[in-house]
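Colleagues,

Please find the record for the two-part complex below.
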Amino acid sequence: MNATERRIKVLLGKPGLDGHDQGAKVVARAMMDAGFEVIYTGLRQTPEQIARIALEEDVDVISLSSMAGSHIPFCRKLKPLLEANGLTDKLWVIGGNLPAQDHAALRELGFKGIFPSGSKLDAITEFIRSNVK
Amino acid sequence: MNAPQKPTMKKVINESGIEVKPLYTAEDVAASGGMAMVGEPGAYPFTRGIHREMYRKQPWTMRQYAGFGNPADTNQRFKYLIANGQTGLNVAFDLPTQIGLDSDDPLAEGEIGRVGMSIDTLRDFEIAFDGIDLKKITVSLTINGAAAILIAMYLAMAEKRGYDIKELRGTAQNDILKEFIGRGTWIFPVEPSIRLVGDTIEYCATHAPKYTPVSVCGYHIRESGATPAQEIAYAFCIAKAYADDAIRRGLPVDEFAGRLSYNFNIFGNIFEQVCKFRAGRGLWAKIMKEEYGAEKPSSMWLRMIAAGGGGGLTFEQPEVNIVRGAYYALISALSGTQTMALCSYDEAYTIPTEYSARISLRTMQLLIEEMGLTETVDPLAGSFYVETMTNEMRKKMEEIMAEVDAQGGIVKMVAEGTIQAKVSAQAYGMQRKIESGEFPKVGVNCYRNEQEEDHPVEFHPYNEDDARVQIESLKRIRAERDNKAVDAALTRLRGDAAAGRNVMPALVEAVKAYASVGEMTRELVNVFGRYQEPIRF
């Protein structure tokens, strides 16, 4: 990263009630090592909280880590809130336990980056670097 | 197909940080402290096992984690597992139940019955355990934040069914300190959370003396990034925090210590794991005897479930996880565990199907019926390697416990998030080692399938209708129950919580009046407040 390049700012959220945050914290560290500024929300964020933090922190990337299967209902609630807050030009990314059969629905809901379990850390950070406008 | 390149005689350091030599002799045993801590099975310091005859008398209990949807769905799965030879139950609750929310709470939407069964009131427990003989099948409740409530509910259900609570066996996980480190189903701040654990220990010591109110979990700390030695050491620090609370209440150590148990993890190096358990048994016995002045042998016993952990299983080539599970079960048997469970091969993807749960069960049954693992106690004893590594693992655990003490103790470290930061840094380091190939993982960084994988995993279906049924049932109970009795019990609960009295009697009264998990939790939150997570990683 050269000195004039703006630092990429990422919101990393833990949606819903799931408490499995080992993966989210590992990804947060990888993002920091990649030179990104990371706002990690901690556990149990509602769609409203995620949208509010994304707006207030003026992030480039809105990323979620979901392990307990409630990603589709959560993202269905999140999408209109992000839209209402004018956050459609941000990069939306989701990772975690995401069955292949849900990927099309997540894309449909506006998530450009989908990183199921087994994804490489560098693949996540490289995707973000090359897709942030 | 590329095997990891291993130059011969490269220095090998196990995950716990101990060098592994290519050869061990009697001299290594002597240099590591000798055989002083080995002893005999069933006798202090219990390194070789807590019972003299171990599996000759009774094989390990098999207790697969199970639960989903409504109580009726879960009751069917329980009966399926029992019909297939499972000897104990380990109950999975959904996330709303685990963090004290009713099914009709807006925050519960989309999560009802998803990762476990949904429980709102005593009625749900009556359905979930209907037709199951609670004397024959012991039940373990995987519940932490809301544990005091669910223990009260379990005791009330059993009493209603005519069981003598004084004779009732069973276990609750009820280890809140590890929830702050990993797993995350906390509700109240750290101090009142420990107090609630103390309330359950104190209550059970008198009213349900054969019930195990706490199962301290190294398991999830290991999943969060701890080494095997840290797993045991941190769990012991946590158990001591609960024991100290009980002693501050004036309970003699021999009145509660025998009812503490442990939940540990198995993945990684076979010998490191076996030695971890042998070392842990000796160390716990020593702590209870020397630091706490326990006199009853059962107070010194490290009773445990040693479970094949999800942390070792892979998303890639999931069928290979069946083989991993078989090795984990072997380790568990060689370690002298009381109870065994395995994550099923599909658990990186989904809740296990009946098919995958049955494979796990059969894996454990093979060891009993075909492989001779129940015939002889602690069969690895006397091996130069095993005895040396057991001594070295024990020393390593003692060092880690001393470090925790030097940093102000486990409660302070958990409250400030320093343990969380430490294990998460380690998890990141391990993930980088796996991605670079430095730490071999079959199917992940070596022996990968060249073509796109055809995962033979069948997803457990999530029934959206379960939530509607559960909410309707809760509404019906609220309409039918004696709401005056509920209000009186909740008022008593609030009063007892605020006055620092043991809340268990009030919880039992509230549960019997069909108060809901969410209603009881709200009363406690009003007194204790909610935990604010330190964002440390």
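The interface with chain B takes residues 16-22, 25-26, 28-30, 40-44, 46, 68-70, 73-74, 97, 99, 101, 116-118, 120-122 of chain A (CB under 8 Å).

Comments are welcome before we finalize the supplementary table.
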